[in-house]
């Protein structure tokens, strides 16, 4: 059975590649993420296919632009009916507020369920060295908390962050704020390009609402077995 706290990242570039993963995982996965690789290549049909399969959809396009452009961008995405969409918190409070207002207005106007809006804080591929190289002044965790609070104040439903920051975000933003954590690495998986990582159980224990897992499942020799092991670990932490 699926654990609806698990989101599998479909980082492939074709409909066929996506369909192969979705059909091989069957009922064991209920939530999928479509990111820029798949959406730029195959467009809206990716979201429609997942909806037809009865799956929840996280449309992760990480918008980052001036407030007017992002507001119109998220309005265009709202009509697709995804459950979650992302923008970069670094776009600032005016941009986040404009996006939150635009999503509310356009979902009401279209009569579709409002997608939840998530702000990406500091990408999980950053370590301290890379962070300093970009001019980051605060320690990464402090910056993440700062952006999470700003996202909440600006009307966003939650944030994307590393599982290493989940506990601090939960403390700062309260029980109802969504915390979505990529950078999940079960003990059997390779780290790849991720830097700030943790295991499925520890992310949930620290307050993550949803876990995003890509390559440890999609590139496993036996993806179904990888999902089974991850869900088994997740089930040790109550919802
Ligand atoms: O927004 C995201 O989903 C995201 C934010 C972040 O900080 N780090 C991160 O890895 N992601 C996404 O989460 C997925 C992680 O994939 P794997 O590293 O293969 O498990 C990828 O699709 C990334 O685009």
TrEMBL record:
Keyword Lyase among UniProt keywords: yes
SMART domains: OMPdecase
Gene Ontology MF term list: orotidine-5'-phosphate decarboxylase activity
CDD domains: OMP_decarboxylase_like
Gene3D superfamilies: Aldolase class I
Pathway participation: Pyrimidine metabolism; UMP biosynthesis via de novo pathway; UMP from orotate: step 2/2
Ranges for domain Orotidine 5'-phosphate decarboxylase: 5-230
Function: Catalyzes the decarboxylation of orotidine 5'-monophosphate (OMP) to uridine 5'-monophosphate (UMP).
PANTHER family named among the record's database cross-references: OROTIDINE 5'-PHOSPHATE DECARBOXYLASE
The protein's name: Orotidine 5'-phosphate decarboxylase
